[in-house]
Design brief:
- This is RNase H type-1 domain-containing protein.
- Pfam families: RVT_3 (PF13456).
- GO terms for molecular function: nucleic acid binding; RNA-DNA hybrid ribonuclease activity.
- Helix content is 53%, strand content 9%.
- With 131 residues, the protein is mainly alpha-helical.
- The chain has one domain (9-128): Nucleotidyltransferase, domain 5, CATH 3.30.420.
- Helix 1 runs parallel beside helix 3 (56-68).
- It is globular, with a radius of gyration of 16 Å.
- The chain starts with 8 loop residues before the first helix and ends with a helix.
Length: 131
């Protein structure tokens, strides 16, 4: 668990992206793919252009990511709409509806069925690609 507070959802997305990159580095991964549903974040990381003005706090997190990227051999950022990722959508919806702070080191129990279904779908998709 990483205690954190953010001014905006954009900043929270930037922090989450930075933590994912730090985690990949700590695991000593060399070839990584990062997926995100915040298009402005993915656009900035892939093109370093501001499609719209990014908040300075968010930009600081994204610039920290850029400083870590040379430690990887290959990095891919991929925009994935939230509607395609039911788990991320459920977590985001629950967070928006929450009126209190939530801290947990375990995934919330309401997503276990979704995680299982996503895993099954991913395995089926991979099997259909095999020749």
């Amino acid at each position: 668990m990483i205690p954190s507070s953010s001014i905006s959802t954009e900043e929270a997305e930037g922090k989450a992206a930075l933590e994912a990159v730090k985690w990949a580095k700590a695991l000593q991964l060399q070839q990584v793919h990062f997926e995100g549903d915040a298009k402005v974040i993915i656009n900035y990381l892939t093109t370093l252009s501001l499609s719209r003005q990014i908040e300075w706090r968010t930009k600081a997190h994204l610039d920290d990511i850029q400083a870590l990227i040379p430690s990887f051999i290959s990095v891919v950022y991929l925009f994935v709409p939230r509607g395609v990722n039911s788990v991320a959508d459920a977590l985001a919806s629950r967070a928006r509806a929450s009126t209190s702070k939530v801290a947990s080191t375990d995934p919330p129990s309401f997503i276990f069925d979704m995680l299982s279904k996503n895993c099954d779908i991913s395995l089926e998709a991979m099997a259909s690609l095999s020749i």
